[in-house]
Amino acid sequence: MGRHDLVPEVRHDEAARLSVIGQINSFLASSIAPEVKSQYDNVVRPDFEARHGQAPADRHEVGAAMESNATYQLWSTLRRNTMEMRQQTGRSIVLRQAEELAEKAESFNADAASLSLNPDVKIPDYIETGDQHLMPGGYAGELVSNDVSGAANYDIGHFATVMGSSGPWNDLAGRTLAAWIQKTHPDLQPKRILDLGCGSGHNLLPIRQAFPDAEIVAMDVAAPMLRYGHARAQSLGVKDIQFIQAEATDTGLEDNSFDLILTAMVLHETSAEAVEGIFRETKRLLRDDGLVFHLEQPPYRQFGAFEQFMRDWDGRNNNEPFWSAMHESSLPDMMVEAGFAAESVFEAEAVATFFDSSKADEDFGRAPKWYLVGARLGHDMTQDENNIGGPGLRAVS
Amino acid sequence: MQDSTQKKTDLDVIGLSARSATGEKPVFTGDERIEKILGVTLALATELAVTRERLDTVERLLEKNDLVERDSIEGYQPDDQVEADRNALHQDYLARVFRALR
Q1: Does any CB of chain A come closer than 8 Å to the CB of residue B22?
Q2: Which of A96, A128, A317 would you mutate first to test chain B, the one with the most B CBs within 10 A?
Q3: How far is A359 from chain B (nearest CA, A)?
Q4: Total domain count for chain B?
Q5: pTM for the whole thing?
Q6: pLDDT, tens digit, 9 for 90 and up, residues A7-62
Q7: How far apart are CA B38 and CA B30, in angstroms?
Q8: Is the N or the C terminus of chain A less surrounded, counting Cβ atoms within 10 Å?
């Protein structure tokens, strides 16, 4: 992992533990998940067809049939346990040095004009108490003064969860989306950029590198993530990004003041109401000719019933209460309802070019391949070669 | 091994680290006992792998230095080749431990 001043001290056995848990995740995905699919193809589906005269019609019918399959059950139990073990491992690393990490962050953050925390910001209940993806305390929980331990845990643990495939700086998504903007919107020269739900700021540095002259604002609702993200950026020499604590649905920023707005893996962590609010707010903030987009896993409609069922595992078992509904929603249509002109709205795919993605294409969401939904104001995106869908599901199969 | 005498925080690190996330824990097998036994087994498997990795470090350092000091173990940084060797070791190990699931 890339070193910066905020990286916690990780001892020998702790590093080994994170590595082994990553290995187990990788093993479950590459060796056991195919067994689950094989059970479905060779046992569960034929049995269902014999009884019902047809294959399961949707992921719910697949689920009802798979629930009693022993291979699926044990794979699920192990997967759930690796998530819990990863949290225990990461927390035991960061909590034993929680005060020290807080002090380190404070050495960059205290009195910094580039960090604006607001204790009056209302944290949504589902973030305050929901323990997203089994992370005790969630994004906003605090155990010590000026706490950054949750963010530090997220940083070191993400590395284990994805087996280092996000690169030493955990920024594969950030590099992918920066490259995607430059490739598909080469005319865009953003003067002001907004990263909503920036978390610990992993996507910001690739964006800074792609647009060195732009003013960048990074916003999140959770103070611990902002403290860590701001200090991390500062320690890496990036000192010109403004970090602000606010709700993405109510940013307090000026109308028509950004040329580029993005969220990355944020929408699935928020309620449908908040997603609508984010769409309305981004429409308000975006300048004419501006680009807004949201990076997520692809919607379920792109997949067959079994693949949907597997991708929905997180929604059922990983404290992701909005995962299932969001992946079933038509986000392009929601953007139109929020005020975007239908022809300006697009869907696209962003594939990381930095890693070998030629491995198994059906891996239930582990490949570095993301779905983007967004809008380019004042542009007709309906004929754009990169647009794979749009409102009314123009072309998505 | 961690140095338990070196107390840096007032937090109950062991208790807080083991805290469960909110929400109901799924029971996939229909029997909570099986879930728990499998959880314990997985943790045991992980800890054995951790111990093997530590031993691997000790052996490599012994070979290199003819002397092992505690600090030198804590500070050991595997290079890419060592990482690759260890990943191969763990894949082989996991295939043994989870043979029953195949």
Answers
A1: yes
A2: A96
A3: 17
A4: 1
A5: 0.88
A6: 898 888 888 999 899 889 888 998 899 999 999 999 999 999 999 999 999 999 99
A7: 13
A8: C
